[in-house]
Amino acid sequence: MVKGKTPAVDVELANTVPAFPNALYAIAALSMAVTAVMLLLGYFMDAPLKEMANPVVPENPAKAPWYFLGLQELVSYSAFMGGVGIPGLVVVGLGLIPYLDREREEPGRWFSGRQGVGVAILTAFVSTVLTVAMLVFTVKWGWLRSWEATSGVPQIVITILNPGTVLMTLFCGWSFLTVRRTNSTRMGAIALFTSFLVAFVILTYFATVHRGPNWHFYWWPSLWPAH
Hints:
Helix content is 60%, strand content 0%. By secondary structure, the protein is mainly α.
């Protein structure tokens, strides 16, 4: 499907080790360690089960499991883009990385060397600033339908133009800027992946701690109104 040679073609086996048994044993040991930790946590810590659901008085806020709360924050901006559009584009982008990254330098190495580490650190800082700034903006000033001049915009506009799509566009722009600055598609992929990862972590934390009843902003859950 893709023309060209992989970095492993016409390369001697010097300084290499076989995947079996070296990598296989390491992966198996790590899997058993993670399983043991999860079993210990499950034995000593109770699951946070709540009372039975009451259809007459639904839970407010009705939050997804913590690992989906980043997506739920995006869904609060636009159901389609937060639940389908942005996750779908991220999955497609990850799948395209092996086809777009045809560079032979530093294959199979974390961050592809020191340059990749620098790109990841700088990108983490930039994406943190952008994500936090967007959250502050939406909490303080709202979005299109919160403003008098644009309160009647159709839903298609909200679907296309919302905080989630704005962040995605900014991250893609930063990735293209990284490609031009470093002349490396791999560095651009590292920048894009780092941006989405950092944003997802921040959005997950924000939705977990700072979203209360009716998905309004609260500094702490202890400040939620009694109901």
